[in-house]
Amino acid sequence: MDLAIVVFIQVLYAVASLVIISSGLAVIFGMMKVINLAHGEFMMLGAYAVIMSMRLGINLWVAMFIVAPLAVGLVGVILERMVIRRLYGRMVDTMLATWGLSLLLIGVVTSIAGNTTAGVSAPLSSFTIGAYSVSVYTLVIIAVAVGLGLAIRLILLRTQLGLIARGTMQNPNMADALGISPSVVYSVTFAVGAALSGLAGGLLAPLTGVVPTMGGAFVAKAFITVIGGGPAILAGLVSASTLFGSINQLATFITTPVLGEVALLAAAIVMLRLLPQGITGRFFKGTL
Amino acid sequence: MDRRFFIKTSGAALAGSVAPMFPLSAFAADEIVVGSVHDLSGGLDIYGKPMVDAMMLAIEEQNALGGLLGKKLRLASYDPQSNMQLYAQFAQQAALKDKAAVVMGGITSASREVIRPVLDRSKTPYFYNTQYEGGVCDRNTFCTGVTPAQTVSKLVPYAMNKWGKKVYVIAADYNYGQITSQWVKKFVQDNGGSVASIDFFPLDVTNFGPTISKIEAAKPDMIVSALVGGAHMSFYRQWAAAGLTKKIPLASTTFALGNEHIVLSAAETDGFLISYNYFQNLDTPENKAFKERFYKRFGSDYPNITELASASYQGFKLWAEGVKKAGSLDGEKVIAALESGISIVGPSGKVTIDPETHHCVLNVSIAEIRNKQLNIVKTFQQEKPSDTSAVCNLKKNPKDNQQYVIKV
Predict the structure, then answer these.
(1) I want to staple A101 with a disulfide (CB 3.0 to 4.6 A). Which of A35, A38, B267, B308 is the partner?
(2) Is B42 on the interface with A (CB under 8 A)?
(3) What's the ipTM?
(4) Given A132, A217, A257, which is nearest B213 (Cβ)?
(5) Do the domain assignments include residue A258?
(6) Do A209 and B238 touch (CB under 8 A)?
């Protein structure tokens, strides 16, 4: 029984971490159609923001929830103004440009922080379920994922900001005609996407080693999740994370971590063959 | 003054100023080039930097003593940037263009296997100064690092005596981890214990949650880790976050080589056991003197003088000893001299080249991590590379040239 509960928590954790890793990309790629290959590096910047803040004596929670998203959001604004805005509507070109950005960011961070692994220790302690210990931080990740999902939904559906953003993405010319500056909306949306990536990096910093090249481990999973999710941003993100996260974690439990990864990728391939538009191309149509 | 004129005159002036001091050809003949191919950038630079620093120190010391055979030594250092193609190119450049008398380099087993045939062809003696999985058998190659029969055979029984018989093994999923975990299994069984499971992890795995639950379900007395690299460091964090560092003890064959004990917090690593040839805390007069020279050259804030740095230093010393004995730089003569069973006293103690395997007989210590320090708990004198010598005898078969995968 206690094993079942632990497995359930671990599966929830896997789903939650996919939601957190992919939310920034869901905004930038899902909404804005920018193939952001620098997504992993945005996360890396978030993780470094946390490490730098810790060295400056800032509280870990402040660093994770405030400094990391703000810092990376700011980087997002600058990069959007300098590079991305010239490439809207040119998907393949954004891929090339953001790939270049990813190499640039890795190089810059390497030359500043060095190519050594840094990191912070996980905060909070652990509790036991029967014979098993579970880290409290695991529950924090699950809670943040739920909170993130709710926040995205509320902002996009219930606020004027969300309405404007969705409208502009759908038809920028019409938005322009109605007196809304698409360029500002794009800029803000990109910054929000970058900030979400930064938050993800900050949250993962206590769980992984922080190196300039750490982004590579996450970018593929984020893309698989967002593409597997399909056109609806939030429903797609949550449904794809649930599917892939559960498959990955259960397969890992039953077999090995290697086969867990294989199961995730195999599931993604089979799913895209059956549902080429992603999950929300067939189900949950018309939702957000 | 136009550009062409400037180049002509300045070129002539430069040639004129240099020529009287050192006629170019004579200059080249008067120095001995020592080739170094170690990663100084990219993912492996944490390992490569201390190795090159140690070689630099060794060469400067040799030069201060008047060089070798009356000639000064020069280090030709190449940085393959953690890229295998560059390894082949730079090894070739060092051997053919620089005409290096010896090449030292390679960190991962993959890079060693790239360099080895290149230097075999050019008949340039090759030193591989990294602890590895054992089994390389090649007359032109000398492996000065420790192998599993030297470290794992000591670490596993020691830890089992202390903690218990049921062992859970986690390892990196490439040849080092695969082979080393088999050695761990062998020594656990030889010692009357049992292996609950061996789990392998690709180098980019960062989520160890399910593994940690599995380990708890298996209820082992101890863990042996052969995890490698930055991503795998998250295992130790998650292990500590789940509160298990204090419940299930851990021994490792790789921990601290990349200074993990400095990056992680003391609470996350206290009590881990590791085993290598060299530790910074070794309490011998040779090591004290070595550390003093090292800190003087590279600054007293040097984070940690690693096993790999000491092995590089000792590798160079062994080669220099061989050259002195041979009285020549000729590859064949130097190899013959090294094969006569040459030994030196390095920072880690006495190191002797085993003529039959071209590996080293050396001291091995077990250390316990306490408060970010590696404290030595036990030292074993003059351990032989018995894993490689079970399959390799270069005295009998000097033409042998392969890496044996040792059947455990």
Answers:
(1) A38
(2) yes
(3) 0.74
(4) A132
(5) no
(6) no
Contact list, B240 vs chain A (CB under 8 Å)? 121-122
Does A115 reside within a domain?
Answer: yes
Does B219 lie at the interface with A, CB-CB under 8 angstroms?
A: yes
Query: pLDDT digit string (tens) for A2-35?
Result: 888 888 998 999 999 999 999 999 999 988 889 9
Minimal CA separation from B392 to chain A, in Å: 34
pTM: 0.79
Residue of chain B nearest A215, judged by CA positions? B204
Q: List CB contacts (< 8 A) between A139 and chain B.
A: none
Give how many domains chain A has, as a whole number: 1
**Residues spanned by the domain of A199:** 2-214
In-domain check, residue A14: yes
Cβ contact, residue pair A257, B210, below 8 Å: yes
Residues 230-289 of B with CB under 8 A from A: 230-234, 237-238, 240-244, 247, 258-260, 263-265, 267-268
Could you give all domains of chain B from N- to C-terminal order, each with its CATH number? 28-146+281-362+384-398 (3.40.50.2300), 149-276 (3.40.50.2300)
Min Cα separation A179/chain B (Å): 47
* Neighboring chain B residues of A43 at a CB cutoff of 8 Å: none
Query: Of chain B residues 171-210, which have a CB less than 8 A from chain A?
Result: 173, 199-202, 204-207, 209-210
Per-residue pLDDT tens over the stretch B53-92: 999 999 999 999 999 999 999 999 999 887 888 999 999 9
Q: What is the pLDDT of residue A35?
A: 92
